[in-house]
Amino acid sequence: MGTAPVSTETRQAPRPSAGQATLSGTGTLLRFMVRRDRIRTTAWVLGVAVAAFYFANAIQLIAETEEELRALTTMFADPVGRMMTGPGFGMEDPTHAAFFSSGYVLYLYILIALMSVFTVVRHTRVEEQTGRAELIRANVVGRHATLTATLILTLVANLLAALLMWAAALAGGFAAEGSALVATGGLAVGLFFSAAAAVSSQLSESSRGASGMAGGLIGLAFLIRMGGDAAEIGGSTLSWFSPLAWSQQTAPYVEDRWWPLLLPAGFAVVLLALGYWLSTQRDVGASLLPTRLGRATARPRLGTPLGLASHTLKGSLRGWGIALLLTGLMFGSFAQTMVDAAGDLPAEMAQIFAGEDMMLGYLAYMALFMSVFIAAAGVSALQQLRGEENRSRAEYAMSAPVGRTTWLGVHLTVLVAGVLVILALVGAGMGVGAMASLEEDGGQYFGELFLAAVMQTPAVLAVVGIVTALFGWFPKIAGAVGWVFVGFGGVMSTFGQLLDLPDAILSLNLFGHLAEYPVEDIAWTPVLVLTGIGVVGVLLGLLGWKRREINRV
Amino acid sequence: MSENTPVIYAEDLVKEFGPVRALDNLNLNIAPGEVHGFLGPNGAGKSTTMRVLLGLLRPDSGTVTLFGGDPWRDAVQLHRRLAYVPGDVELWPNLTGGEVIDMFLRLRGKYNKSRRDQLIESFDLDPRKKTRTYSKGNRQKVALISALAADVDLLLLDEPTAGLDPLMEAVFQEVIHEAKSEGRSVLLSSHILAQVEALSDRISIIRAGHIVESGTLSELRHMTRTTIEVETQRPAQPLAGFSFVHDFRTEGERSVFEVDGDHVQEVFNDLAGLGVRSIVAHPPTLEQLLMRHYGEDLSARGVGTETTKKVS
Questions:
Q1: Domain limits at B268?
Q2: Mean pLDDT for the stretch of residues B249-260
Q3: Is A19 within 8 Å of chain B by CB?
């Protein structure tokens, strides 16, 4: 150009409208993302839809008459039930529709939230972490194109999921407006958590950190609404601090109010703006949270196989441990509420439970419920090992004189020890929480509650064993099968009695076999069988790992 | 193990991944104290060979020994005597470079602390940074330092310098020379020809899972051609008639052609009678060696010979 007269074209070139430049390439990227996600996102959306169809129709089969329905509602109407499902609108005069929205929809919302977080992080921070984003950004791609395309993709997935949920509710014969509210509530939850993930992806340099932050927010939202919804029918003030509770506060089929959805919508807009703004404040691949310099030499214990294994696994196990300890403390602290609530229970339940039995039964159930999450910690740690293999770190480590059996053995040692510590922490948390909240002599239950959690060990071990065996022989499916066991266990523990399933299928729920100590006596057969499955699984896994090729393409 | 047991010995090694034959009757023989260049394009089977030698993959047929032992069965004992630098190193993202180096040195047993510090300095690495912030070159330095500071007999280096800058490349050459003078064996895979040429005692060229040529550089030169550029008073055209002269091109007084390695003497005799004004003789480069093997492959795949020539 130099001193030559500036043509109209060149004069315009440096200042196209800012929006256009930062968004160029969005369409192409979006098509590319759809291509890459065609199976994964479709599976998520269909998964949500199938669950919605099942829930909407199953209730009508399980409880055909109003009487049967009324008997079932006690499950969702008491504080424990509300804790697990929601504010419980319309449960005093239940309909199938209200039962659907009070009892099940929360879990559809959680699925949608997880789908949104994973999709956003996968297309933003994961891409940056692997360096693929650089390859993309070196082309004619605007600064905001990736984030925008990601959000459009996630929005479309959410819209589809919401539409299918609406169709599912309508197929169940429920009222159109309430069904639309259920679906729009799902969309709102999806939007909110997509926006939250758009922010967390800017903050953390690692995809695990980004998913962890946004996933932690889902967990926190769940915990807050547990506390809020358990306190009062229809939710208390605390409920209004939880993004998951906002959508439930629309009270579909009962009050049909739309205005609570303004909250997630408004916060989503604010978070999105924040995400976009933060993304302009940093370099590609960098994070906003600073990285510090570390040690120039290693601590002595790192130089052993066990040290390496504990370094690899301790971060995520610690995260699970802290979250579950806090959850245990919180569950324990509801002990007094349970004792009080026993007095207000419908006659048929009060006959079964005395006040303190009610409290212990609730905590026994909570120990079971949390053991599903502890098993999830185990499965996710085993998936991390598969990641170590896929990323060639396992073979690099084993190029030193570290044998295969040693490598897997030390990692399993750390994993099992971690899981046992978490079980103990959960038990201690419940015990301490109960001790603090009970007005009369709370300390007497500590031992029983601690043991209630520790007695769940065999179920967790069985899951770990099965996944380890698969890791040794069929590594590609190990993680997926593990999550199926965990997910199935979660669904069964929450809705088991409501879903009219044959015994053969019920028995596949590894978490359903142990006695509910302390309200039931310990049954040793399931303890031995499950522990046996765990031990045999681990041994099989070690054998397979010793025999199979590492990271074979 | 006796003095003469090869450090690495592979005979008729076959490894198949489904329909792909990654190693196709591969033969490899490396003596104690030898630096062996392992040359081939991407996907030729270099890394697969390394991974078989490390006991990560099990060959479908053939014999392979490392220090006379079975790399699959005796992995742990054998790994005490070797150090491996992977081609594309992924490190533990929240460890620092220094921590990874120390971890490996301790896992391998004996090591020399001052040697470690000295290598960190020569390679100009900041050991306090988390490995996730390192570039590919810096990650490779970490793996190289932890291998070179270890007290081992064999270094398995899989394209170890792909991410290093020329300055670091020079440091690398120096430390490999040191390792050689200490009597260590090195298997150095690469597609950087100059590097292998400068460092190796012997070279094996691998193509599609099979060693197509193996020997010292001078042995290989017999199999290849010297390029001669010459300006002569009288036309050099008559030389084009010889069966051992190839690709003869002439432009005025200047002629360029290739001579089979074992006929150079005859060509020089003839040139002397033509009145040589200037002459430049290029020794065969490994590019040419490779091109002769892969050139056929390329034309077989339908790539024009013209393209092949341009590349060479």
A1: 225-283
A2: 87
A3: no
